[in-house]
Fold:
Amino acid sequence: MSTIFTKIALGEIPSYKVAESEDFYAFLDISPLALGHTLVIPKHTEEDYIFTLDSETYSGLWAFARKVATALKAAVPCKRVGVAVLGMEVPHTHIHLIPLQSEGDMDFRKQRPEISKETMAQTAAAILSEYEKL
Structure:
């Protein structure tokens, strides 16, 4: 059974893609904590828990996330890009990259901003453009 994230990476479900490599995929969270909130996933494994990934996938995922975070910070004005690995809502390893102005921006219990589809698409395109420069 494929997870929703596998279906997104395969293009079966639309997403706001911000970066892609042979092994990894990054896309905007559809319920973001902040504009630019990105999810980074491995494409070829549906492993539920990041710490049970094989070493090569684990290292590659973090290297890819680092590059995506660099592009994200260049495209979305923020003081830092926060990182969270929770993995409770979808049983597929994923890293949250969240543009931060303050530490409070990482509170997953807070109300989510409403962001238009047009703004999401523009933000994804801006991040992808920065990613492709790296």
Notes: DSSP finds three helices and five strands in the chain. The first strand starts at residue 17 and ends at 20. The two ends are 35 Å apart (CA to CA). Strands lie at 17-20, 24-28, 38-42, 80-84, 95-100.
